[in-house]
Amino acid sequence: MGNIKKSYSLETSVPGKHKFVCRDCSRETMHVIVAAYTENRSEDCGGGNSVDWQKIDQIIQCQGCESVSFRVTTTNSEDYDWEPEGMYLNETVTYYPGRSAGLKAIDSYLLPPGVQDIYKETVLAIENEQSILAGIGIRALIETICKDLNAEGNNLHDKINSLREKAIVTPEGVVTLHKLRVLGNGAAHEVKKHTNKQLSLALQIIEHMLDGTYIIPNKVSVAFK
User: Fold this and answer.
1) Is there a single domain that holds both residue 30 and residue 123?
2) Coil, strand or helix at 106
3) pTM: predicted TM-score of the whole model, two decimal places
């Protein structure tokens, strides 16, 4: 291993505003970078060559809801692509807590305990881009809902159809749930990755079902005793 040089710098007033995804606003909003801590590393490979890394830890604040979170960017000199203007380094970006545009958690405390647990874990998997686990979570969430609603059948396919017979889900809703079941099967049995957009949309579809089946009836029973 060659000689490794490291340097660190702290910037407490980063000028400008930037468009980042806000977890609370569930979309891209303008953010300011409150502070940025930069680490640079360089390893001498000999012959005048080196491998360089950079990591920037940022404290960011949404200018809409004012929530504060963390953003980490990393680059290295061996991970690059080309465009007409020349070479550019590929940047890896990670948020803490994780987030996905368009994904907004519902009032999960109004869900039955078993449904609530798998819902929260599926949201976390999507936000942190764990696509295989998120796909499995989508299927598990549907199965848990079916169990809680006493859906009948020997397999998930039949249980989903049972929800239509119980007038819990519309015929169109059953078709959609079967598509999500297939998505979950692909993740569970074929280790198939789905895009964050697909998984977010799948969860939003299930959220509508949870909203109509559990959350709104609960709120109505409290408001109109």
Assistant:
1) no
2) coil
3) 0.68
